[in-house]
Design brief:
366 residues; alpha/beta; Rossmann fold; seven-stranded mixed beta sheet; 47% helix
């Protein structure tokens, strides 16, 4: 190689190195700027995917509460909301759509925790963190918030046993459990059974598809026909919708007095049934705390900050997922004022409509 050519090669290499270093520097500067912007509160797009509309809580509480808290933390952030209406395949399509829209974070309450795993994988590959909300979705989730679901079952079971009292030795209970596709349902059921074992006989047990009240009604009718109304001393209904279906069946099944029936979610109709003495109890879960926690987790993940969490949990596919689990409260006629009214879930006016006014008076709800 002659001297002139060598100088050209060296110069070209130097220019290339300079350009490369400059490009690298700009990339690092861009990355650093993006990181600074995220930490300073850059706008985020958060996808919120809720599982169904049969339970009143999702549309009435979860959606507005999560959206409100996101806006408090980040006024310029946008929440894109969809509801799968109990269809797992629809929810998979919704996740795909959110990924296509390039959202920054997903808050996901899975219809089916197993089938959604492939969609969570897709989000992970697209560098979109997923907050599993209320139900522990499988796949590489980044955070999880829910209630202590095994304790929910234990709270229901302890309350039912206490109300049944001495009748537990002379009769049987019916269990109306949640939908098998919902991972929480198994935790409620196992929590309840851990209390019932050795203390009361479970005469009939049903896993009610999609938590549907009409199917709970049909199952309760089947239990009455099979066991006989004189043998049923209590009903474990995993949520308030199913409790309503069971109570209707019991009321039309020849019972002079409806046996105690549990529930969960503190739905307005259930609170009114509790006031009227038709439903024994529900489980009050502070949706406000759960929703705020999910929103805070989502915004933190979007900004690249540490996830606010109190513990860790393991799913069938992931270990040590940052999590916050919220304790449940047994709701009876005695603590309506101190729970759902105090927390402004419902006003006394909303509970004590003309139909329930006399019952409210008897319960001291004025």
């Amino acid at each position: 190689m002659n001297a002139t050519l060598r100088r050209v090669v060296i110069a070209t290499a130097a220019v290339s190195l300079t350009v490369g270093l400059a490009a690298c520097g700009k990339a690092k500067e861009a990355d650093s700027k993006e990181s600074r912007d995220r930490q300073q509160g850059a706008p985020l797009t958060i996808g919120l995917l809720l599982p169904e509309d049969q339970t009143a809580r999702y549309e009435n509480f979860d959606k507005p509460l999560i959206t409100k808290r996101v806006k408090e933390l980040c006024p310029a952030c946008d929440v894109k909301y969809v509801n799968a209406k109990s269809d797992a395949s629809v929810q998979q399509q919704q996740v795909d759509s959110m990924i296509t829209k390039d959202v920054d974070v997903l808050v996901l309450d899975a219809v089916d925790s197993k089938s959604i795993a492939s969609s969570v994988d897709k989000a992970h590959e697209a560098d979109i963190p997923v907050v599993a909300y209320d139900r522990l979705a499988e796949g590489p989730i980044s955070a999880y918030t829910s209630f202590d679901n095994a304790e929910v079952g234990r709270v229901q079971a302890r309350s039912l046993l206490k109300e049944i009292g001495g009748k537990a030795d002379r009769g049987q209970i019916v269990m109306l459990n949640g939908w098998e596709a919902d991972p929480n349902a198994a935790m409620y059921k196992e929590g309840a059974l851990s209390v019932f074992r050795g203390k009361v006989k479970v005469g009939k047990s049903y896993d009610v598809e999609k938590w549907l009240p009409n199917l709970a009604h049909d199952s309760m009718n089947g239990a009455i026909s099979s066991l006989g109304k004189d043998r049923i001393v209590g009903v474990y209904a995993a949520n308030d919708g199913m409790a309503g279906g069971a109570i209707t069946a019991l009321q039309h099944g020849g019972f002079a007095t409806v046996p105690p029936v549990t529930g969960q979610d503190a739905e307005l109709a259930a609170v009114q049934r509790i006031v009227a003495g038709e439903q024994f109890m529900s489980v009050y879960k502070s949706y406000k705390v759960e929703a705020r926690t999910a929103a805070e987790m989502a915004v933190a993940l979007g900004w690249g900050e540490d996830v606010p969490a109190r513990t860790t949990v393991d799913s069938p596919t992931e270990q040590d997922v940052p999590a916050t689990l919220i304790p449940p409260v047994a709701l009876t006629v005695d603590n309506i004022k101190d729970t759902v009214v105090k927390d402004r879930l419902y006003s006394l006016g909303k509970i004590c409509t003309p139909r329930y006014r006399a019952a409210c008076e008897r319960a001291g709800l004025r």
